[in-house]
Design goal:
Elements: E1 3-4, E2 7-8, E3 10-14, E4 17-20, H1 24-35, H2 38-45, H3 75-83, E5 87-88, H4 91-104, H5 109-121, H6 125-138, H7 145-162, H8 164-167, E6 176-178, H9 190-205, H10 214-243, H11 252-269, H12 274-289, E7 290-294, E8 300-305
Parallel strand pairs: 6-7
Antiparallel strand pairs: 1-2, 3-4, 3-5, 7-8
Helix pairs in contact: 1-2, 1-7, 2-10, 4-5, 5-6, 6-7, 7-9, 7-10, 9-10, 10-11, 10-12, 11-12
C-alpha cells in the first residue's frame, strides 16, 4: 500500500463501491512499531484480515448499503477495477464526506461508524471513540453493534499497548533482574485491561444479530477471542513486571499468583499461545524459588522469598 505523510490513503474499489481497506488492525500495527515488544506482535497477528466489505442491505430505515461507502462510481474506477489496481483517495476529504452524510442522515449509525474508522486512522482517537459510541446508541436493532464494539475494543487495546505497558524494556523474566529507572511498570490499573475486554466480549455476544457479510462475521468470530487472550496475557505480563520493581510493596507474591489466573484464561481461549505457555513456567518458578532485583550498581535491592 502507498503511504504519504505516514497515512495510508489506499482505497479499493469493489462492485461499484469504494470501501476502506484498512481498519483497527492497521492502528494496532502502528502501535506495535511504537511498542517494540515481542508479545505485542502476537496481539497483532489476528488483525490481518481487513475490516472492510459491504454490509447486507437489511436495514432500509437506516439506508445502509455498505460500511465506508463513498461517492458514486466513475469510469476511472471501472478502469482501475478491470486492471486490478488500487484507487487513491484523500482520507481527509473522505472524512468530510462522512460528515456530510451524517448531516443528511444524522440517525444513520453506519455513517457514524465509518467516520469513527476514518478518524481512528488519522489518530484522532477521542473523536473516533465518540463516533463509535454514537453508532452504538443509534443501532437500536443491534444490526451492526458487534463490529462497532470490535473497533472500540481495538482503540482501547491500541492505547494499552502504546502506553508504558507497551514501552517497558524488560530483561528476561527470570529470577534475577536489573532495575532500569523509568522502564518498569510500578502500577497496574485494572480498567486499562477490563475496558477493551468488555468491548471484545460484547462483540462476541452480538454476533448473532450482526447483519454483515460472511467475511466480517468470520473476522469478529475468529479474532475477538484471540484479542481477549492477548489482553489477559498482557495483564499477566504486566503484573509480573510490576512485581519486579525495585521497591518492596508487599503484594509481589499475590500479583504473580494473579498473573497465573490470567494466563490460564488466555490459554483457555488460545491453547497454542506460546508466550502465555512460557510465562506460566516463569511465574511458577518465581513462586517456587523466589526472585532478586538488583539496583543499577549491581547490588541486591530486593529479595522475594519463594514458597518452596
Amino acid at each position: 500500500m502507498k503511504k504519504e505523510d505516514g497515512k495510508d490513503k489506499t482505497w479499493k474499489d469493489k462492485t461499484g463501491r469504494k470501501y476502506q481497506s484498512y481498519g483497527v488492525e492497521q492502528r494496532l500495527e502502528h502501535g506495535e512499531s511504537e511498542a517494540g515488544e515481542k508479545e505485542d506482535e502476537q496481539v497483532l497477528d489476528s488483525q490481518k484480515t481487513p475490516l472492510s466489505s459491504s454490509l447486507e442491505e437489511s436495514q432500509p430505515d437506516q439506508n445502509t448499503t455498505s460500511i465506508q461507502e463513498s461517492g458514486s462510481e466513475t469510469p476511472e474506477n471501472d478502469e482501475f477495477e478491470e486492471e486490478g489496481e488500487e484507487v487513491e483517495f484523500d482520507l481527509e476529504a473522505q472524512v468530510e464526506e462522512f460528515r456530510r452524510q451524517i448531516e443528511e442522515e444524522p440517525e444513520n449509525c453506519v455513517h457514524h461508524y465509518n467516520l469513527g474508522e476514518a478518524l481512528a486512522e488519522l489518530e484522532e482517537i477521542d473523536g473516533a471513540k465518540a463516533e463509535f459510541e454514537r453508532a452504538l446508541e443509534l443501532d437500536q436493532d443491534k444490526a451492526f453493534s458487534s463490529i462497532v464494539h470490535f473497533s472500540l475494543g481495538g482503540l482501547y487495546h491500541h492505547e494499552l499497548i502504546a502506553g508504558i505497558q507497551g514501552n517497558v524494556v524488560r530483561s528476561s523474566v527470570g529470577l534475577h533482574s536489573q532495575h532500569k529507572a523509568g522502564c518498569q511498570i510500578i502500577e497496574v490499573n485494572d480498567d486499562d485491561y477490563e475496558i477493551p475486554l468488555k468491548q471484545y466480549e460484547a462483540a462476541i455476544e452480538m454476533l448473532d444479530t450482526l447483519q454483515a457479510d460472511e467475511e466480517i462475521v468470520d473476522h469478529v468470530k475468529d479474532n475477538a477471542p484471540k484479542q481477549i487472550a492477548d489482553i489477559y496475557y498482557k495483564w499477566a505480563s504486566d503484573l509480573i513486571d510490576k512485581s519486579r520493581q525495585i521497591e518492596v510493596y508487599g503484594d509481589e507474591i499475590k500479583d504473580v499468583k494473579q498473573s497465573l489466573q490470567y494466563l490460564k484464561k488466555a490459554l483457555e481461549l488460545s491453547p497454542n499461545h506460546s508466550q502465555a505457555q512460557l510465562m506460566v513456567k516463569y511465574a511458577r518458578k518465581m513462586l517456587l524459588e523466589g526472585w532478586d532485583i538488583y539496583d543499577e550498581f549491581g547490588f541486591v535491592a530486593k529479595e522475594i522469598q519463594g514458597t518452596g
